[in-house]
Write a structure and sequence with these properties.
Blueprint: H1 19-28, E1 31-37, E2 43-49, E3 51-53, E4 56-62, H2 67-73, E5 76-82, E6 92-103, H3 106-121, H4 125-135, E7 140-154, H5 155-167
Antiparallel strand pairs: 1-2, 1-5, 3-4, 4-7, 5-6, 6-7
Amino acid sequence: MADKFITNYEDVTVYGLDTETEDLMHAQQKELTFCWTTKDGSPMASILSYFRKDGKFWMTSAAHRKRVPAIRRDPRVAIVITSTGQPMGGGRTVTYKGTARVLDDRATKDWFYPALADRLYGQSPERAAEFAKMLDSPDRIIIEVTPGLRVGYDGAKMAAATTRSREAGVLKKL
């Protein structure tokens, strides 16, 4: 795409998010949008803290939240992560279709709560320990999402292509 000038944004698929940039985005971003389907088939979403481990996405929720029975009924979900508000700057996104599992076993909770607490509050070990302890309540579950289809977008690539086209005078001719 570097040698081609653009005249519109009709096809933004050429501005894909590369793996290295995506990994940096995941290292910086601590929240994602978690999407599921309600009982009547309507889409719904919520913002959740997350981390990646072993190629999967991990989150937590209280079991009484509507998303939990929805996942148990239909494990097909989507997650959306952006670079907005992070040091790398906005304009990058990645969306995954995925399959979710609800876990509530002690072994998962024992490694998950400290891992999430460290991700969110690692700069303060006391606060991280307090957070992990507060998460460990009887009604809390863990959500594991195995990603499938991935759609990534890098707005910095589109901005660079626009700048090249502008500097070449292509956009003035429109």
